[in-house]
Amino acid sequence: MKPPNAGMGGLVLNFGGNYGGPPNPNNCVPKLIGQVRDFNSALSGINPHPDFEAYVGTGITQGLVMSLLGADGGPSYADPQPLGSVQISFLSTFRDWYSLTHPANAVFELDLDNPPPSAGLSKTVEPTGATTYQSTAFFPIDGQGTQAQDRVYTDGQVAHNYHFTFELNVKFIFRPGQVISFLGDDDLWVFIDKTLAVDVGGVHSQETGQVSLDTLGLTAGKEYNLSFFYAERRAPSSTFKLTSNLTFSNCERIFR
Predict the structure, then answer these.
(1) CA distance 255 to 233
(2) 253: in domain
(3) What would the pLDDT profile of 31-59 be if each residue is shown by its tens digit?
């Protein structure tokens, strides 16, 4: 168990909307395929990253990123940073988190519908039509990458590859009544139409956040981009739960 306010490396995320709404207009199975980027902790003797296993937060730290996605489609470091507890070392270190030039042997695809066994993901379809992906031991890159020396933290007696970011880009059709809510720990940002909609930044224990898409000025029936950026920055636990009833519409994976 972690001390209070220490990141738990986990996530519970719910995408709310019209249950039993219209099917995908493109008549395909949407692709929920994202990218995991592997890092070493600040305590590692090889290639340490100063933003991982380095901070203990005191709750949500909003304002770590700008309200609009950057020119490269990723979140941009806010300058100045919010007052209070320091959560990120420098602009240059934050650029690493979702970098398009991250070492190729430390970037991995994660298909939520076909995950590796180490992710521990189960998939269930609710009576409402919503689909839930859930794991109580979310370690999607165990045994992979160049960060093997980072497998020094343990869950019981089992070593895992901690300290990673996860990026997922999808498209969806907006229907009135859709809501995004979540329960999670460590940084989580959701952008809709390139604009920040959910800001639960910083290293923290499990926190909640929610936004009604009806408040965002979206047009019913129109297709929008949704970008999800997550960081697992502290050991020892890692959980993941994603429930979606949005009408996802992308027939292919979307990478920047």
Answers:
(1) 23
(2) no
(3) 999 999 999 889 888 889 999 999 987 78
